[in-house]
Amino acid sequence: MRLTALLPLLLGGLLLGPTEPHTPPEEGPALPPSRGVVRTLREIRSEEPGPLLVRLRTRAEQMRTGVAPAEEPRLRRELTWLVQALALRRDAAAFPWEALLQEWSTRRPYWFGASLAEAARTALGRGVLPLVRELDQRATQWQMRLVLHEILWELDPEEALLRATRLLFQEKPRSPNDLLHAEFLGRVLVGQPDPRRHPLETVQRLRPLVDELFRRAVRNTGNRLPEYAWRQAIRGVALRGDRGAVPELVAALMAEARNVLARKQALLSLLEVAPDFTLREVLPRLQADPAVEPVWAGFLEEIRRRYGPAEPAASRA
Questions:
Q1: What does pTM read for this prediction?
Q2: Which of 99, 159, 169, 182 could form a disulfide with 228 if both were Cys (CB 3.0 to 4.6 A apart)?
Q3: Within 33-183, where are the H helices?
């Protein structure tokens, strides 16, 4: 019997309980600036803004055009310290953050543009929001956009949810290897709304809506998401502990007979969010011919060794 014909039976055997809230690891105390940042701050206190900006742009341009491999760690460290130090100056808000962010929104190295966005958040506080809204566009490089969305979730989660929906389901990837959607799901959205930063009322209101974004991404109707992003969505529902996503996970497991990586992730996510149901109803019905599907067959054998054989509910009735 084909597994696709068993979807109603599989889902009918699952009693879905309430979705458990995701509890991120405890956040430790805020760390003081590193010794390098403190030293850099001391060095630049007497410098005027103009020379500092020249120094910043000069070092960034050196990194962009290429340096000897032996020099790259030192230059990257200097740039990182300099950006952080600028953000911590008393006159930090007066620096031309908009011009800097615009300048590096499409240029490499991408990590430097992302560092500038983080520094602008420190320097401007909520005043960074107009820049975030202005730069959250398809042309902006992906590492900076991740930081922009992290800032938006911190300062305005309602708007962040709207922009997340648009990014995932209306914005096409720039290329088949575009990392934006995958990294957005796996790094930014998976922990939102954050109970450590958002009021309980906000968490209770927005969490089901974010869960639905992940389920919609797992369904991936029309295959709009790149494959890696789709697998990140499948993984994300498990990290969020969303038992309500079991139908989507079962459908993904059944639909992707030729995509071993996606099937592996779907089965692992099912084992995470609904282990008893998966071992009782799903795993016994999964079969693979080692001669035809050696990777999938080996994976199923490994899972059965790890969890032990499970007797289907029908055979115990």
A1: 0.83
A2: 182
A3: 35-44, 49-65, 72-88, 97-104, 110-124, 129-135, 142-155, 157-169, 180-183
292 alpha-carbon distance from chain centroid: 35
- What is the token pair recorded at 128? 């960074």
Q: How many CB atoms lie within 10 A of CB 2?
A: 7
Contact 253, 281 (CB under 8 A): no
Q: How confident is the model at residue 31 (pLDDT cuts 50, 70, 90)?
A: very low
pLDDT tens readout for residues 71-105: 888 888 889 888 988 898 889 999 999 999 999 99
pLDDT for the residue 304: 94
Cα(174)–Cα(163) distance, integer angstroms: 17
State the Cα–Cα distance between residues 75 and 72, nearest whole angstrom.
5
Question: Helix, strand, coil % (nearest 5) of the chain?
Answer: 70, 0, 30
Report the chain's terminal Cα–Cα distance, integer Å. Answer: 20
Query: Is the separation of the CB atoms in 87 and 127 below 8 Å?
Result: no
Query: DSSP state, 30?
Result: P
**Tokens coding 304:** 């059965």
